[in-house]
Write a structure and sequence with these properties.
The complex is a heterodimer. Chain A is α+β, with helices and mostly antiparallel strands. Helices cover about 30% and strands about 25% of the residues of chain A. Chain A starts with a helix and ends with a helix. Chain B has a 5-stranded mixed β-sheet, sandwiched between helices. The longest helix of chain B is centred in the last third of the chain and has 18 residues. Classes of the chains: A alpha+beta, B alpha+beta. The interface between A and B is large, with 61 and 55 residues.
């Protein structure tokens, strides 16, 4: 953390719930999402595979091409000829996949043919005229099927359906097992779900015939990496591709890998004399718009009788579906914070990524951490029960203590600050935990079953992108950083252009608060362009909105660029006022003498010198008041299997939940939901609260409602919001939120991750509460989601959810 | 082709349309009012909610031809020059994140407050059952609607 006095000249705005004025456009219906852009476009529809696994023996598009209104068609085999295969990030086995199906299809919904027509209705009509002959192949749907010795291969060249298999061990696990009084074991199954942004993927591609280049407008969440991926896949130089990201209607990770579709749109645009537009339907989104993978997790805790955990083993098998780009990354991220909030000195993680005929997977909110905290926090309850300990007590006995901070986990993750025991204590008292316990006993006498669930979770932020070391040796990306351009305009107002993009996180307001306090001006004088244009935005390969990096490197770049501009203004002012720079201060939108505030020159006057009367500038000072800065988190380690930090900041939270379970109907009702959250310094509590609650509801949906269901033929059964159940306003608890503040010593403002934490802690807390409610029936929760049907069945027969 | 005349936000529109054109596409593409959004294919999400002859409906569930001679209000027409109290409340209570569901939410909320000046939290949540929000978890939206109800009552001098 920097000395805040070096950053801020006032403290009027940072830390306050400043209203998000960027919302005015949104509430008036004046936003500009991709589909709102006023361009004369051809409209694209995709023919997608109806089989989960089949060889393509014929694609005949002639009838479709003859339909009046159809402008152009591209097929998978044509696209494969013109592109390189999709780059894989983490897997170790060769697996060749193109952005469209080539010789065979591997999941229902895989794109096969793209049609551009004068409107979307005609494009959809044309799809019905395309004749595809398939030769169905045996399918592999579940993890167990994929692992069978004689399992059909989805990628023949891989020689297996396991595309990554690695074991990472840190600390002495053998000793942990030897010293243990007992080993608590369990096997969990976590389902497929997704945070489903309300705006689906959307993009427009335009081909500039003159210089054979492309301009693309897309709601891409990670434009830095996408730019590289699109250019590499198309085999074009970077300077022939320009990416513009306008308003984006939610992301949650699900828009991190839309770039394969951008590649297809570019190829189609080449055949059409105007821009081509594709807006994904919800059905397309739920079929193949990316999910969090389902997974099997075996877990073992070698422990002492007093509840102390000596080591932690997981065998994690991810069902990564059929998308080689992101396959394998969930396990690697999960492993990094597998000890959660606990002082566990030995870990062993056996990680497998398997391919199946389910849809693609991508980094969904929390990326593996919701599952890791789910299994770990379930285990804390299971172990407590086994040892006759209270679930609260077992957590206290294992927490990393505040005096151990900064704490390095066995694998090298550095937890920089935090007070986990106090966080739990605070959550217990805020929730009235002891009272709820009493109420539980009383209510049980009346045949009502309430349960209490606790979870203590780590919420990491800022990925160190070197973590794909398993396969790559030297990965393409390392560390994390972001860029910002800050300028003072003719009026003395501030304009900011970022390398990252916003999907609703309120970045513009937060940035304006920080700059307002750096320059002593009203935030209204700071304009932040939340959009990205690769031609002008200061982007890096890391640029984008993911892994809660905004509060760290994005703001770091803003602060560094603002400091450069401020320093330059002070230097110009020094020349104008004849006062040494050390004798000057920034005050109320001007630079003035510390001794005599009458000696003052406003930003506007300084700008007038910098932009217009440039002959009056001091010797050696360049004209202009626009500065660019890139800021890199200083704590990221170089890629190494022995000592590495996958994430660089670590927020934490405790969720305490009380539910009532109707054992006749299986219905689950919330009685209480309390979160105590520690994300270090909060810059805008109103924004933090919204993201924390919203994120928590993602976890509640995952725990109770949402699931991508496939039948034995690999056919998705939940491809609309009729079948894929999302949380609605009714049925949700009122979430009570309290905060602690353990500043991060390694970010400029002491901030940490905000945004994913709710989704991480809530899944476990809800599951623990349900199991506690059903304890009179000896029901164990080892899978998700906890649906009413499963509850009723478990109570009556299986004793297991 | 069929002729459709509709009055949207007080302005008259007239177009020749195909019978199959959805009303939401008419509003977005023919009338070029893009504040009304599309978030699903099945009438679940409510991003396309409009006021249709004064009642909130999902404009993806109607054909444009059905809207002939209808009076329609979209988010662009919710307030005159300033902001509707519900819009003001959404702004003040952090009820917006990505903004994609917001237009539909605003129309459902304003419609609720027309018929119920002092809704309870449960009534607000029930009124939002047809509108999905993926960002906020609804709580700040619910709070904003409560707050809007209070400010509307205060400005009209109604008390409970």
């Amino acid at each position: 953390m920097m000395n805040l006095d070096e950053i801020f000249v006032t403290r009027n705005w940072v830390g306050k719930s400043v209203r998000r004025d960027e919302d005015i456009r949104l509430i008036k219906g004046e936003a500009a999402y991709v589909d709102d852009l006023d361009m004369d476009c051809a409209h694209v529809a995709f023919l997608r595979s109806v089989y989960a696994h089949a060889r393509i023996t014929k694609i005949d598009t002639s009838k479709a091409e003859a339909l009046p209104g159809v402008i152009a068609v591209v097929t998978g085999p044509e696209v494969a000829k013109q592109t390189k295969p999709i780059v894989a990030r983490a897997i170790t086995q060769p697996a060749i996949q193109y952005v469209m199906a080539d010789k065979k299809v591997r999941y229902v919904g895989e794109p096969l043919v793209a049609v551009a027509a004068v409107d979307r209705y005609i494009a959809e009509d044309a799809l019905e005229l395309i004749d595809v002959e398939y030769e169905p192949l045996p399918v592999v749907v579940e993890i167990a099927d994929a692992l069978k010795k004689d399992s059909p291969l989805i990628f023949e060249e891989a020689g297996s359906n396991v595309l990554l298999h690695d074991t990472l061990e840190h600390g002495n696990m053998d000793a942990a097992y030897q010293e243990a009084d007992l080993v608590v074991k369990e096997h969990f199954r976590v389902h497929r779900y997704s945070s489903t942004p309300l705006e689906t993927w959307a993009m427009i591609a335009k081909h500039e015939k003159g210089n054979d280049s492309f301009v693309v407008w897309a709601n891409d969440q990670q434009p830095g990496r996408s730019t590289a991926n699109v250019c590499n896949t198309l085999g074009i130089p970077n300077n022939r591709f320009r990416l513009i990201v306008p308003d984006s209607g939610g992301g949650f990770g699900i828009k991190l890998a839309i770039w394969p579709h951008i590649v297809i749109l570019c190829l189609l645009a080449k055949k059409v004399d105007k821009p081509v537009k594709w807006v994904q339907t919800r059905r397309e989104h739920l079929l193949g718009g990316s999910h969090a993978p389902d997974c099997d997790v075996e877990i073992e805790l070698p422990m002492k009788k007093d509840g102390k955990i000596l080591g932690l083993f997981i065998k994690d098998i991810e069902n990564d579906g059929s998308f080689v780009h992101t396959a394998g990354i969930y396990g690697l991220i999960k492993f990094a914070t597998m000890v959660g909030c606990y002082d566990i000195r030995a870990t062993r993680a056996e990680l497998l990524s398997v391919v199946t005929q389910k849809g693609p997977t991508v980094q969904n909110r929390g990326v593996g951490k919701p599952t890791m905290i789910f299994v770990l926090e379930r285990m804390m309850d299971i172990a407590a029960k086994k040892l006759g300990l209270d679930p609260v007590e077992i957590r206290f006995r294992n927490f990393i203590q505040p005096k151990q901070m900064p704490y390095t986990t066995p694998s090298g993750e550095i937890y920089e600050s935090g007070n986990y025991p106090e966080c739990l204590q605070k959550a217990l008292s805020l929730s009235g935990y002891d009272e709820l316990k009493k109420r539980q006993i009383e209510m049980r006498k009346n045949g009502k079953y309430i349960g209490l669930g606790i979870s203590a979770g780590i919420e990491p932020g800022t990925s160190n992108l070197g973590y794909y070391y398993t396969s790559r040796g030297v990965p393409e990306y390392m560390g994390n950083a972001e860029g910002a351009i800050v300028s003072i305009d003719y009026d003395g107002n501030v304009n900011v252009v970022m390398g990252s993009v916003d999907q609703g996180q309120g970045h513009a307001t937060t940035i304006s608060q920080v700059i307002a306090d750096m320059l002593d001006i009203h935030p209204e004088r700071v304009s932040v362009d939340s959009h990205l244009d690769s031609l002008v935005s200061p982007f890096l390969g890391h640029s984008g909105a993911y892994s809660n990096k905004f509060n760290d490197v994005d703001l770091g770049a803003v602060i560094m660029a603002t400091k450069k501009v401020r320093d330059k203004m002070v230097r110009i002012a020094s020349h104008v006022l004849g006062v040494e720079t050390g004798g000057l201060q920034v005050k109320n939108g001007a630079v003035c003498s510390r001794k005599d505030e009458q000696k003052s020159v406003s930003f506007q006057e300084i700008a007038s010198l910098a932009y217009k009367k440039i002959l009056l500038l001091p010797e050696g000072v360049e004209p202009g008041l626009k500065e660019i800065a890139y800021y890199k988190n200083p704590m990221a380690k170089l890629p190494s299997r022995d000592d590495f930090n996958v994430q660089i900041t670590h927020s934490n939270s405790v969720h305490v939940v009380a539910v009532e379970v109707d054992v006749e109907t299986g219905e689950i009702t919330f009685l209480k939901y309390v979160i105590v959250h520690d994300c270090g310094k909060q810059l805008n509590p109103g924004i933090v609260e919204g993201m924390t609650i919203g994120s928590t509801v993602h976890g509640i949906g995952a725990a109770l409602l949402e699931e991508f269901v496939y039948d034995e033929n690999g056919q998705p059964l939940s491809a609309s919001f009729m079948d894929y159940m999302k949380p609605l306003a009714g049925g949700l608890p009122r979430i009570e939120l309290a905060h602690m503040e353990s500043p991060c010593p390694y970010t400029l403002l002491g901030t940490k991750a905000v945004g994913e934490g709710g989704a991480i802690g809530s899944v476990a807390a809800v599951a623990n509460a349900v199991e506690d409610a059903l304890s009179p029936f000896q029901v164990k929760v080892v899978s998700l989601p906890i649906t009413p049907q499963k509850v009723v069945k478990a109570v009556k027969e299986t004793k297991e959810i | 082709m069929h002729r459709v005349q509709a009055r949207i936000n007080g302005k008259d529109y007239e177009h020749e349309v195909e019978a199959r054109l959805l009303l939401v596409h008419y509003i977005r593409e023919k009338a070029r009012l893009t504040g009304t959004h599309v978030g699903c294919d099945t009438g679940n999400c409510g991003a396309c909610t409009i006021l249709y002859n004064g009642k909130p409906v999902k404009s993806c569930m109607l054909l444009a031809v059905q809207a002939n001679r209808a009076e329609i209000t979209t988010v662009e027409g919710l307030a005159g020059n300033g902001l509707h109290p519900v819009q003001e409340a959404f702004l003040n209570r952090f009820a917006v994140q990505c903004g994609y569901c917001t237009p539909g939410m605003l129309l459902s909320a304003s419609s609720l407050l027309e018929s119920n000046a002092a809704p309870s939290e449960a009534e607000i949540r029930e009124a939002l059952e047809g509108n999905m929000c993926m960002c906020t978890g609804y709580q700040q939206i619910v709070d904003a609607i409560k707050y809007a109800a209070e400010t509307m009552r205060a400005s009209t001098g109604k008390s409970l």
